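Example pasted here:
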Amino acid sequence: MATEFDYNAPDVPATAVADVVAAISSYGKLPPLSDAEIEQRRINNEIWRWQCQQREEQRRFEYEQRQAEAEAIARADAAAEIAESNRKARLERQEQIAREIRNREVRDLQLRAARADRWQRDVENAYRNTVAYRQRQTLLNELESAINPPAPPPEPEIVYVEAAEGSDQLGTSDFDPKLWMQKSRSWF
């Protein structure tokens, strides 16, 4: 069974209420401070402000250190990223140069192969032309010999020459001036 509290009929004596009202009205009122206490409070307040200032400076110093460390880490990270991107760019450029060199070498080999093929075709065409020319010449010679047989060789002709006595050489004992004159006329 629950008992209910009756606010209209309190069982608190009337003096208790008066005591509470007196305590509430006197609450927060402190006795007046002496000059030494006032000076001590002022000193304590200055010490407290100085300590607060020191704590604030310490916090600011620590914050600046953390900021400097964070900036140093950020700069180091940025430098590492730049170095990595430079390395990647350098590797990509080297790969690009290698690809270009390979492409040039392949094109050069293709060009050389095309030249060799063209040269071989030219040689083969020249050989075929030469063979065809020789065959035509052989056929023409055979046709000509079939149509016009060669004339029989002429009979040898016998020529008799009179031999002169003497020599056409000056200073020899058998020198003949007529032979010398015939020889000198043949020079002109």
